[in-house]
Amino acid sequence: MSEVINVLEIQNVTKRFGNLVAVRDVSLNVAKGEMCAIIGPNGAGKTTFFNLISGFFPPTSGAIRFDGRDITRLATHERVARGMARTFQITEIFPELTVFENVRIAAEVAGGYRLRPWINRAEAAKVHQRVEETLKLVSLETKTDRLVGELAHGDQRAAEIAMALALKPHLLLLDEPTAGMGDQETYDVTSLIRRLHREQGYTIVLIEHDMRVVFNLADRIMVLDQGTVLAQGTPQEIAANETVQAAYLGTTA
Question: Partner of 204 at 20 to 30 A CA spacing, among 16, 54, 166, 218?
Fold first, then answer.
């Protein structure tokens, strides 16, 4: 039996804002190649927990390890450099730039070129190839010259995911990837995420409010409620959990 390799290990993290405890004693391990979903009602602490993982602020207590290294006190950009990439509930893109230009910015960051005044022809060709490969991965290869601000919402989200992928992440954090989408766009983005997970082998943690998406995608689900872990398990275990049903899924046993 092969040993499970954890990409992410979160041990008893707590985050306090004054007297408010937004996250309390939460632990989570995410194995290499796993898709883990985080769900919970509004105010459950999901976004705060994501902010702790991605380094927007440090935990008050507890520890976070990424690829076997302690990153508890590392800044966001240091975590990105180590292979962590995140998308946001509100799409974070450059609407006045083309699809290609948006993804090129991320590819140049990944290549370590952004702080240099120029790059040579071989480096530029390498970046160009990386951008083309990434856009094909998210099915935007026919829209490379379109301004991102002119794209449909679903394609804008795909462009944002492409920017994250161009960073060559070992861990992809997706914050409400289908927020504000209609049924067709939700289906398209869900299909994209499934491909990235199952065909490309990406390790993914996502926050998602749409239970159809969660139960369709996730290997494992963690339920937060008022900053604490209500339950963890497979989609089948979570669906059958009476406490989760009563507190979140809206049914009683």
Answer: 16
